[in-house]
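Researcher: Re-running this chain for the archive, since the previous output was lost when a drive failed. Same request as before.
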Amino acid sequence: MNFENLLKRIMDSDVNIRHSIITDNEGSILATSHRDGVTNYLSQEETEASLRRAVQAWKGRKALKPKIGNGLYAVAAFERITRMTFPLGDDNLIFVSMGSDTVRTDVHEGGQKQIVEHVLNILSRDPTKE
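Model: Regenerated C-alpha cells:
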C-alpha cells in the first residue's frame, strides 16, 4: 500500500485536517502529511509519545474484538485539536487531527463527523463512497 498516496487522499478530503500520520503497531511513524501553513502544537517527541499511548489503547480495544467487534475509529477531543484514530489493516493505524477552529466556510463540510465519514469511505476502498 502506498501510504503517501493514502495520506494525500485523506488530507485532500477536507481542509480542516491539519495533520495525518500512519504508524505501525508500536507507534513508529511510517508516513506523515502536514497541511502547509499549520504549526504543530506538540514537539516531535511529544507527538511520538502520544502516538505510542494511542497504539496501546488500540491494543486494548483489539482484546475486546470477540465480544464487541472490530474497532472502527476513536476520537480524542482537546481544546485546540481533535484527533481521530482509524485502524489500517491489522498492523497499522492512521491518526488524523483537525483544529478546533473550523477553516471551511460552507455549511456542508468540515466537521468531525464529515471527516470520519470521508476517512472511513477512503479506507473502505469503495470508489462509489468517496
